[in-house]
Design goal:
Ubiquitin-like (UB roll), 3 domains, 14 strands, 36% helix, flat
Amino acid sequence: MPPPERLVGVVGKTNVGKSTFFAAATMASVEIGNRPFVTLEPNVGVGYVRVRCAHVELGLPRCNPAKGYCVDGWRFVPVKLVDVPGLIPGAHEGRGLGNQFLDKIRQADAILLIVDAAGATDADGNPVPPGTYDPVEEVHFLERELDEWIYSIIKRDWEKFARKVATTGENVVDALARRLSGLSVRREHVEKALEYAGLVDKKLTSWSQEDLKMFATGIRRAKPIVVVANKVDIPEAEDNVKRMRRELKYPIVPASALAELVLRRAARAGYIRYIPGDSDFEILDDSRLSLQQKRGLEYIRENVLKKWGSTGVQQAINKVFLEALNMVVVYPVEDANKYTDGRGRVLPDAYLVPRGTTARDLAYMVHTDLGKTFLYAINAKTKMRVGEDYVLQDGDVIKIVAAAAKK
């Protein structure tokens, strides 16, 4: 049983740079254009969380990732992203490309909300002069669309559902979690939403339409959102980012997805040395670049990297997985002294797991039989034995010891 896979939706108004962000994060081939509704089908791709690799702390010369990669001591752990086609006001009523796209994020555990921080696209995604549209309002309208969409799902056959729960005596939290499981909603989400809406002790059969709407908002609020303030290479974005940080309750990550895409493509072509998430790059061979390319790279250096510290793309991915979803990276091994698997590979596996995962949980993730026959684990860094309830810490290297399987 592999580690629990968390899916993050790349969501936003149409034509704000979502597909550019997705392409930069995953290097997947997606259509990009300065017009509404370029993305007609959702794209699913692999991005990466960037963490300091355990091999550095252990003083090892290298590691051998089975998945992802490691460069200069930075481990890139694969994660799944879905690029959802853009939304416009009224999408929950079928306007634009409508509910079919809202449905595509139902499995998302968290959302990267891409916003045009430069205010250069109107509500329908049409290009307008920078500074014309309000990115704070852009976030609020996306909240409203998500709220209305969740509400439309909750209210379907509500009276029948509420009567059944009352008749059977089923636990209300369990019943609501089951009803909303298709939205990746878990018990803790339902509990938070009930508390937010003030419905903890109110019978389901007594809920009003307003109660249902408040509960829907609570469900949306329970799903983590990180706002990506895109297009910060445009001067009008600077003041908007400051205002977004003052007025919005979400984490705000300034970003230029286009700059990241340019840097990654230049690095792939061998023009520059650039590690995703770095604050600068190195030109490898000046003679291979045209004057226009040099000017473009220098523009990115001056107006994005020096000004904001990074392009923001890698930082957004890290924030949503490591902070919003509260996950840690651990390394299961077979040899606690050499830090290797059965094939002699050094730290081949890096598991991204929810904070609070125990040693036995990890054993089940590695193999079901290991979980069933678990005896104890060894913290390879300290060489100390730990029990099944040991809570894994970020960067732990763990050997699972299990009883021999019965023949």
